[in-house]
Amino acid sequence: MLADHLVKQWIGLPTRNKKNRSEEERGRRRKKRKRRRKKRKKGREDKKKEGEERIEKEEEEDKREKKEGEEWIEKKEEEKRKERRGI
User: Where does the record place the region Disordered (predicted)?
Assistant: First the structure.
């Protein structure tokens, strides 16, 4: 492929470029381009979904930790009250 291109350049024949591509080749290139765009779009959407899921998980975890923290504080306060009553 590269050799053909170099030989054509050396001889002075026109090499393949946008202007002298066949209709079939243009169609293949369009299909490839379309396929690549579609894959990139899908990849972006997947990353977006993963990010949203991660954020939701973190929020749930924060709520759970906050609730556990409040319960722990209440438990400690009760222990202190019991100690005061015992003394």
Answer: 1-70
Q: Which amino acid is at 53?
A: E
Distances (CA, A) of 63 to 2, 11, 22, 57: 61, 74, 62, 10
Q: How many CB atoms lie within 10 A of CB 21?
A: 13
Q: Does residue 13 form part of some domain? A: no
As given in the structure block, the two tokens for residue 4 are 């053909």
How far apart (Å, rounded) are the C-alpha atoms in residues 15 and 4? 9
- Domain with 39, as residue range(s), is 22-86
The helix/strand/coil state of 46 is: helix
The domain total for the chain is: 1
**pTM assigned to the model:** 0.47
